[in-house]
Design brief:
With 196 residues, this protein is mainly α. Helix content is 36%, strand content 8%.
């Protein structure tokens, strides 16, 4: 199975029973679509009667967005806005901009740590160097200068680190993804007796 199929199976496992939207509490319960959901069971349907939840729709949209690297966030926002206003039925709760959509899926993403680093890759500004203004090895300044010549608090260079434990938990927390990661040629049970 491909990665998107595995991710969607994770969401299906987390989602549980479908939400009943037959009564009038749908709009009252999900009036604000930008609420942070604790888990997939709380993600409302895209519109009353939809089989797809908002988060599932956004997973598909972000998968499409990341597979087309020439698209800008502005183009993604315009696409969401067009879908929200002209394609989907009235009462849909699809976000209409990139920022709103990202805020909805952010709780489901692997947390990232952003570190300031020396522009020459000498050190990471953490632990004993956390408050340093210059690199102790090459004496390069940590922050950019503003147009007035004063220091801004914007680092010259950063490094984004995805912690190992959340990545391992995410990778092996779903049976379909774990199976894909552990086998080199698909289902190893079918390949018994073959020379690898």
């Amino acid at each position: 199975p491909n990665v998107l199929t595995s991710i969607m199976s994770l969401f299906q496992e987390l989602k549980g029973e479908p939400i009943d939207v037959s009564d009038n509490t749908f709009k009252e319960t999900y009036l604000n679509p930008f609420t942070q959901y604790d888990n997939m069971r709380q993600s409302p349907p895209l519109y009353p009667g939809a089989k797809l939840s908002v988060v599932e729709a956004l997973v598909h949209m972000f998968d499409w967005f990341t597979s087309h690297p020439s698209l800008s966030k502005q183009a993604f926002s315009e696409n969401l806005n067009y879908l929200h206003n002209y394609i989907l039925p009235q009462g849909n709760i699809l976000p209409s901009s990139y920022q709103e959509a990202y805020q909805l899926i952010k709780p489901f993403l692997i947390p990232e740590l952003v570190y300031h680093v020396c522009p020459n890759d000498c050190i990471i500004f953490r632990k004993e160097y956390k408050n340093a203004e210059k690199c102790p090895k090459c004496n390069e300044e940590r922050f950019k200068r503003s147009s007035r010549g004063k220091y801004s608090r914007i680092p010259k260079r950063t490094f984004i680190y995805l912690p190992l434990c959340p990545r391992v938990v995410r990778s092996y927390g779903t049976s379909s993804i774990a199976e894909s990661l552990q086998s080199h040629q698909g289902n190893l049970a079918n390949n018994e007796g073959e020379n690898i």
